[in-house]
Design a protein that fits this description.
The protein is of the alpha+beta class. Helix content is 43%, strand content 21%. A hairpin with a 2-residue loop joins strand 1 (2-8) and strand 2. Helix 3 runs antiparallel to helix 5 and helix 4 (94-109) packs across helix 5.
């Protein structure tokens, strides 16, 4: 497993574990990947990055508000990071979610037509049944992300989650190997 830190303003804001046999570029949008840097096992959210080396901050006081904000960011990244559906990457960024929802509404009103979608590999045609399966899988993924964030926030409120590392370690929905 490879480990990456997503860095904003010189600080690691999220730790991402990439399973063996996969590349971070296969799992996330290139704009997101550009903010991620390979790191060692000891690096956690809050560490500093100078462009070459990660280092532990001298003093870190994490508030409940920091943890809740971090949980929301973590959910958003997973929610919009895409999924794999029957070996096909499906983007789940907010624009893609909207396009999928629109296409699903269209095929519900016109069940005998096919729709065309542009993928990284080119255009594909989808039947109403296929479009519905994609829409349902993306919808389930998005809802699972919000459910996970809700549980993390409950655990933060209860005091059982106290660190960003514990948020990272939570059983968030997977971005890979989803099928319907």
């Amino acid at each position: 497993m490879s480990k990456f830190a997503r860095v904003e303003n010189g600080t690691a804001v999220e730790i991402i574990a990439v399973p063996d046999g996969q590349e971070i570029t296969d799992l996330f949008h290139p704009d997101f990947v550009a903010t991620c840097f390979a790191c060692s096992e000891e690096v956690v959210a809050g560490w500093l990055y100078d462009g070459n080396v990660f280092s532990a901050p001298k003093s870190t006081t994490i508030t409940k508000a920091d943890l809740l904000a971090y949980a929301a960011t973590r959910r958003f990244v997973i929610e919009t990071g895409g999924i794999i559906l029957n070996s096909m990457p499906v983007m789940t960024d907010r624009e893609s979610q909207s396009l999928i929802t629109g296409a699903h509404s269209y095929v519900q009103a016109n069940p005998d037509i096919t729709v065309r979608f542009k993928t990284a590999a080119g255009f594909i045609e989808l039947t109403a049944t296929q479009m519905t399966a994609i829409a349902n899988t993306v919808g389930a993924h998005v809802q699972a992300c919000f459910a996970a964030e809700g549980e993390v926030c409950s655990q933060i409120d209860a005091g059982t989650i106290k660190t960003m590392a514990e948020i990272d370690a939570f059983a968030w929905p997977s971005n890979g190997a989803t099928s319907s």
